[in-house]
Amino acid sequence: MINEPAYEELPTGFTQIMLLSADYVIDPVLIPSSVIFKNNSAGSITISVGTGQLIDTGTSYTLVNVGDSIWLKYLASIRTWVIISEHALGLLNRETYTVAVDTTALSVVGTDYVYFCNGTLTFTLPDATSTSNRYEIKKGGGGTLTIGAVAGLVEGAATAVETVDGTAFTIMSNGTDWSLF
Length: 181
Description:
With 181 residues, the protein is mainly β. The chain has no helices and 18 strands. The protein has strands spanning 6-8, 16-20, 24-26, 34-39, 45-49, 54-55, 60-63, 69-75, 80-88, 91-99, 103-104, 112-118, 121-125, 134-140, 145-149, 160-162, 168-173, 178-180. Strands 1, 2, 4, 6, 8, 9, 10, 12, 14, 17 and 18 form an eleven-stranded mixed β-sheet that branches. A four-stranded mixed β-sheet has the order 11-13-15-16, with no helix packed on it. A hairpin with a 2-residue loop joins strand 9 (80-88) and strand 10 (91-99). The protein is globular. The N and C termini lie far apart (44 Å).
């Protein structure tokens, strides 16, 4: 039997926070389109979805430790719960942004970033010598994506240029410059 989670009711437009003490199946009819699930048990909690739905690219997500949490937003048009951010043991480890203007990447220690870049824009990475963050970038929306850096080269050049929509990169620093994978 699945226990109903404790939650705090918030005004319309705000994210609902649900404290889980047992495995939980998300029903998009009953849950608002933006929700934070937090593990409030001594063991792991698995969040799963109904038939035809996804959490990111799978059908379930496990919060391993007490205090772990995940912030999900439901996109009804594609029947998918998108991960906005994850917290492991209370530490944020991934943030997701959609940008359509020139953007300088964030660089909080211990955080990986996902950027959906739409249209023609320049995406500027931080100094390659001072960050160990991982950046995932996906190009969309037509135009040209130019990836540069505050300091350090991008794949041996001052910038990398991409024009093909759907192209995705994982970008990491080698301590001096930026590498695209």
